[in-house]
Write a structure and sequence with these properties.
The two termini are 27 Å apart. The chain has 2 domains: 4-125, MutM-like, N-terminal (N-terminal domain of MutM-like DNA repair proteins), CATH 3.20.190; 139-266, Orthogonal Bundle (Helicase, Ruva Protein, domain 3), CATH 1.10.8.50. Helix 1 (4-16) runs parallel beside helix 6 (191-210) and helix 3 (139-147) crosses helix 6. It is 23% helix and 22% strand. By secondary structure, it is α+β, with helices and mostly antiparallel strands. The structure holds a DNA duplex.
Length: 272
Amino acid sequence: MPELPEVQTVVNDLKNLGLVGLTIEAAQVYWPRTVASEGDFGRIAGHAILNIWRRAKYLVFDLSGDLSLIVHLRMSGRLDLKDASETRSKHEHLVLSLEGGRELRFHDTRKFGRVWLTEDAQSVLGHLGPEPLEEGFTAASLTASLKTKQRQLKPLLLDQSFVAGLGNIYVDEALWQAGLHPTRTASSLNGAEAAKLHAAIIEVLERGLRNSGTTLGSGQGNFYSVAKRRGRNADELKVFRRDGEACPRCGATIERLIVGQRSTHVCPVCQP
DNA sequence: GTCTATGTTTGCGG
DNA sequence: TCCGCAAACATAGA
């Protein structure tokens, strides 16, 4: 569930909560499959957090001694910062004890989330495509790479090696914004359409970021950032999970369909 | 109570 | 190259 804006929000919160500079004093793994890297996870003890940043939907903690702690939240993962005295919930699968008495806890009801402790961050992050909010992602580069692909737009944009950080929500929103149908073949876009898609991707991501991410519904399984804060972006969504409602641009009824095995939302008039 | 759907990623077979 | 499917799990909602 967390896509680029949600993961960036978590990074921002962790930094605001003062984690950079703290030493990790101990680690406890309660669900071994959460740890995807080889080697003894306990060797993280004694390493300080030098920086926290994001690549695609991955959180990266630069640690002293050239170690990297990498976290992917997948569907239901969350990081909670709690006092060490608080009792552990049954969904907290990894607990890092921090200098000063607080603990960073990886909470993941569905257990799809993964963490890596590695000397070689590239082995985890190396397959990722361009960051859509960085310089290298231009209308020209997107246009050129779209031309070489015979795939449908939706599964292509969800492919993290094509462009990094988009998930189901923001892909549907970007395609609506650009007026493109999710089943269009990538290579069929003309220059103007590709440029419009480029602008739409950036716009929906930046809006999500400004709103501290998207929290759907009210249940526990939805996105909450570190300080238990909900994202405010749900109200800004134009088509995602709005099937049956009126398109905010033309008033037609939004439809839901399945594209590439993923539920997909479109305006049949704006996205022919 | 029971059934269905789920926002992610990876790997496999065709 | 590309597509479809399954798997990793638990919970919310109908």
